[in-house]
Design goal:
The chain has 108 residues and is of the alpha+beta class. It has 4 helices and 4 strands.
């Protein structure tokens, strides 16, 4: 079984920080901590099971096939495999338009 070294992009780290802050304010710090732990576990699981993800449909429609995603609850973890490295690029709410979210990132 192939193993991958995992890297989080600054944008993905920022996504996790914002998710934690949002959930802490809306629910509780405990729920935010729990979700962050679950997401980190999902990301770590990609170390040995990276190819289990699927192409994000919005990207597949425009023939962008170098990104994969897995889901956790209502969140999408979008990542890319390059040789023996795995880059997590984003952790996004599935209820929002991926196109809108990516455009917002480009305009920051």
């Amino acid at each position: 079984m192939k193993s991958y070294q995992i890297f989080l992009s600054p944008e993905a780290e920022n996504d996790l920080i914002h998710l934690h802050r949002y959930l802490s304010e809306r629910e509780s710090a405990e729920k935010a901590d729990q979700l962050l732990d679950e997401l980190e576990e999902q990301i770590r699981s990609l170390e040995n099971l990276a190819t289990r993800g699927h192409f994000p449909p919005e990207l597949k429609r425009v023939n962008v096939l170098n990104y994969l995603e897995i889901h956790h609850k209502n969140l999408r973890i979008i990542y890319e495999i390059v040789a023996d490295k795995l880059y997590v690029h984003a952790v996004l709410d599935m209820r929002r338009s991926l196109q809108t979210l990516l455009l917002e990132r480009l305009l920051r």
